[in-house]
Write a structure and sequence with these properties.
It is built from four helices and no strands. By secondary structure, it is mainly alpha-helical. Helix 1 runs antiparallel to helix 4 and helix 3 packs parallel to helix 4. The chain is elongated and about 50 Å long.
Length: about 100
């Protein structure tokens, strides 16, 4: 059951952020590099983005340590998936971690 919750969170972690990303690119005529630079235009937006970046680094460390500890095959695949989004990659890691632990 817990495993399925992580799978649902993975799907939601992909859909919700990309809904807003898609809305941005459909309504704004901004090149991608300018959109990324716009993430740091104010101190408050920079704070949120740096917080997210630190969360990604922390998740990488956790996935590396936990994947190695439980001898999970291909645990490293989840690290580059954070490019899609941490809200996608982390629950997906937890899903596969639970599947591995069930064996």
């Amino acid at each position: 059951m817990k495993k399925n919750i992580f799978l649902i969170l993975t799907v939601l972690g992909f859909i919700f952020p990309y809904y807003f990303i898609l809305q941005f690119f459909l309504t704004e005529n901004t090149p991608t590099f300018q959109a990324i630079a716009g993430l740091f235009t104010t101190n408050m937006s920079a704070a949120f983005n740096v917080d997210l970046l630190m969360s990604v680094v922390t998740a990488w460390v956790f996935m590396s340590i936990e994947g190695t500890r439980i001898k999970m095959k291909n645990w490293w695949v989840f690290l580059p998936l954070t490019i899609i989004g941490l809200s996608f990659a982390l629950p997906l890691f937890f899903y596969f971690r639970e599947r591995h632990l069930e064996k």
